[in-house]
Amino acid sequence: MENLADKFTHIKGWGIDADPKNDPTYPMRKRSANDHGGLNWSRPTQQNNTVEVLHSTERPNLTAVYGTSTPPSGVSGMLRRFAFKHSENQYRHWLPLLLADRVNVVEGFLEDFKSGKVPNIFAEKGMKADLEHDRAGLAKKAAIVGFAVAAVVAWQMGKRNRD
Questions:
Q1: Taking the complete model, does pTM exceed 0.85, yes or no?
Q2: Which of the two residues, 75 and 8, has the higher pLDDT score?
Q3: Residues near 83 by Cβ (< 8 Å), separated by ≥ 6?
Q4: b vs e for 116-134, b when ≥16 Cβ sit within 10 Å of the residue's Cβ?
Q5: Is 72's pLDDT higher than 90?
Q6: What does the DSSP assignment read for the chain?
Q7: How many CA atoms are closer than 13 Å to the CA of 92, on its beta-carbon side?
Q8: Nearest 5°: phi and psi at 51?
């Protein structure tokens, strides 16, 4: 049988946890009966709630400490509020959250335009890296966006001709 550690020695850090004497979880494995399974800590002081915080229906209360930098707002916030009314084991929770993230991107672009700032979409979408490492993927994305823009323009032109 081939030794895997020898096969991957060219990868920096490969097998760093192979030596059980160098295992960082080692002290956690040796627990005494007085440790209560490692849960011997007290709950931190509850953070003051100054913004709307969405949390899972599976949790009865807020975690003691949480982030407040981006409270839910706009259409994406409405989608997130809807999502957090449903259990985490349902698509009605996760799909709206995925959609809310995409909507939030568009809201961010609109907010930039509203404040007089033109977003550098090329840089923000990582297209320089795509151009260097994934030209086929970038061409596919450009074709999809081009098709979508052409479809919207054709639809608008057809609508004007009917009016």
A1: no
A2: 75
A3: 54, 92, 93, 94, 95, 96, 97, 100
A4: eeeeeeeeeeebeebeeee
A5: yes
A6: ---HHHHTTTSTTTTTT-SGGG-TTHHHH---GGGGGG---PPPPPPP--S-----TT-SS--SS---SS---HHHHHHHHHHTTS-TTSHHHHHHHHHHHHHHHHHHHHHHHHTT----HHHHTTHHHHHHH-HHHHHHHHHHHHHHHHHHHHHHHHHHHH-
A7: 7
A8: -135, 165
Residue 150 corresponds to which tokens in the numbers above?
A: 């052409």
Residue with tokens 């209360």: 61
Contact call for residues 109 and 119 (beta carbons, < 8 A): yes
